[in-house]
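Annotated sample (chain length 137).
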Amino acid sequence: MLYWRSACALALLFLAATMFGARSGEPFPFGTELMLDVPPLHGIKRIPMMEIEEDGAASIDLWCTSLRAQATLDGDSITIVPSEAQNDTSGGQCEADQQASDAEILSALRGATNWRRAGEVVELSGPATLRFRLMTN
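Output written by the structure step:
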């Protein structure tokens, strides 16, 4: 009887460790739009988004501008190298604080060194942390 209880306890422990271990080891969601987890800025309906393909090609849409980038992922490490901003998608309506927010996000993306995924949330961390939500329409 003691043997049976010990075997059941060990099996439950193994199952729990497997479930939690698989959860923390979720793959990066290549090809999925990631929306920055922030409230909208005053006067702008769009929210910054990013999408990274398996080959590392990335597109980034910020509050006021859009650009391309190259991302390199290795395990839980990430490096993002944005290009120069391609265009102002706001029709010239961006204010100084919105442009400053774009610069802060770009700086955080350039400084990102690690990533982790928990379900529908992807966090990029470095000197600053950016939290994205998977777009699952």
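Annotation: The radius of gyration is 20 Å.
Annotation: The beta strands are 34-36, 49-52, 57-61, 65-74, 77-82, 87-88, 114-118, 121-125, 130-134.
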